[in-house]
Fold this protein.
Amino acid sequence: MRNTTAAYLVEYRTGFPFGVVDEDGFMVGPPNSRRYPDYFNLNLHFERKFRALHYLWAWRFGYNNLTGTLNANVVNNVQGTPQFLRYGGGQARAFSVRLRLVGRK
């Protein structure tokens, strides 16, 4: 199909470093001695262009974080707390739809 395209993003990296602090906020051990888990992201989208009302439009739909990996961006780095080294945040798998105006043609 001439008006349909596919777009993808594959990204992998080791986790970012972070330091551990105690409950008073003082550094415990060397700075940046710990790392987040490895990061892996796979996005896959399809786009279909069409003409309407004298303009060129495009519908895009697909998934972000297709594999559903955690990809944490938050960590409890306070030593001595019950949640110490618990990772969280990151984007969960998400389906997205977008209509965009490409231009006049």
In short: The first strand starts at residue 4 and ends at 13. The mean pLDDT is 93.
